[in-house]
């Protein structure tokens, strides 16, 4: 039993969520050591951004975390706006919150669906969650014309006003979503094998979560009450009545429950935003070629995956001198070797699934 | 040259050689056709459970999809991995397919329709079923691929956990019927199917049949999300098709066995007919498919401890119950 086997998992593997390669040291079925090898989706966005005008960088950010493009748009645009010292019209902020929270729901739906695949329930949970995600994509298509990379949130506001009927349709969708979430809860919590496979697996203690730099649902799944939306409020999140969702045990099931409960919370925020949305401009007057003053800014938002930060150094020209992206998926993925010591291969896949890495963002 | 009378051909069947040939041909034809249709039915049924359409392009309602897939597999290049153990690698699919077909010869579809009416039919079936692990281990070991190896070893671990409860569960039926002959077992259910007195045994046996046919939630040997395709990872073309066909035939076979052991085989309301057996098999297959769409895969250690600590004591208890029913 003491003979070790080196297993190469990926980059082409059914459940590595993209192009992750894991070098796994095995002792029988047990994982002794795991080394993630990343970089298969590296496209050098940070360098490309140095040769582009500020407004031309937004479409690049779409392709970072390609399942939550709106959040990336927002993180970048917010950094530029802080550098410019720009005031954004209130209606634009409301629209931003609506699309950001819808995006969070869409992203968590995808994560929840793919954990079903990882655990070996091929496509049942995924097809159900994709049914709802599809509606959100339709909504975004009506906003921006695109279904994946939206380029919708832009410097000074958003690209276009909400189309006719958008708010009514969103509200009816959210009502429907709440019922569907109950369906998912049945499929997850009432399924004994599902609970057995996730409860107590990959436990991340609150202390470790902070020390290892976990963010987002992974951090909150360990019971740490931290959310940039509350901690460092941006946009108009402080207008709404909501609370931070946390898990209890820090295992895979807690992280899954954080996704499910955050979806409900996001639905609450969207409903409140739609109720109070004021009339007005959807975009401030900004010139096509923005020229921020010399200076440097680090701005962060709570993307569906955690703290997404953009560090921009401007030299007073139309291009950023340097752009650095702090990606939450990368930070969460770096916890994997810590969590995967001594677990079974099957658990390794489950843990990877609940860390929910998106490789567009890990590799950038 | 060929006499045109049925009596002559039926009398030929008395000859063991002709009977064997005709039986083998018949079993392979009927089962392969049934598997083709069942795979389509499974894909369609699971698709509807999962909010999708399933195959709907080849033929009416996509019924030719399996045929098209099979044809595609036959046209693919047959790859032999460089460092594979050639003979074991080639032999595994052939063995897998033939061992999956073999137990059907002892299965009666009607009182008088059976290829080989063995006195110890059920014993023969269990023996062949436990042989079916050999091609899996061969396929796991021979291609010199770690995913295959893990799949093969998992399958072996699975097998030692299910084979014992399977045998013990069947003993309950044997106690009640008092015979090892398959036809006698069915005839013993004339007054009532064994599912009622042997409900516990039925639950054990259907659980075990999930394991035997490596279907979710016990599809550990080929656990796609963990070890890619498990013990079939390195196989392609016809060899892969044979392995898959063999695997699927196991599922069909266990369903047939459940129908015979617990649901009175070909007996039905009004008349006895192979039709009832087919119908019961289909219903059991649908149950297997339904489970596949709604549970996640169990982990290897959970699976082994489930087999040893739960199923075996339970099946011993089941024998006790069967004995009590027989005596009182």
How would you characterize the overall build of this protein?
The complex is a heterodimer of chains A (364) and B (328). Chain A is an alpha+beta fold and 364 residues long. Chain A has one domain (43-327): Cytochrome-c3 Hydrogenase, chain B (Orthogonal Bundle), CATH 1.10.645. Chain A has helices at residues 45-50, 54-62, 69-84, 90-119, 124-144, 166-189, 192-198, 206-211, 216-221, 228-231, 252-276, 328-333, 336-339, 345-355, 359-363, and strands spanning 5-9, 21-27, 30-37, 153-154, 157-158, 295-303, 306-314, 320-326. In chain A, strands 1-2-3 form a three-stranded antiparallel β-sheet, with no helix packed on it. In chain A, strands 6-7-8 form a three-stranded antiparallel β-sheet. In chain A, helix 2 (54-62) runs antiparallel to helix 3. The radius of gyration of chain A is 20 Å and the shape is globular. The two termini of chain A are 40 Å apart. The model of chain A has no long low-confidence stretch (mean pLDDT 88). By secondary structure, chain B is mainly alpha-helical. Chain B is built from 13 helices and no strands. Chain B has helices at 6-12, 16-49, 65-75, 86-101, 121-131, 133-141, 146-177, 182-187, 199-212, 224-227, 237-262, 274-294, 300-327. Chain B has one domain. Chain B is globular. At the A-B interface, helix 4, helix 5, helix 7 and helix 14 of A face helix 7, helix 10 and helix 13 of B.
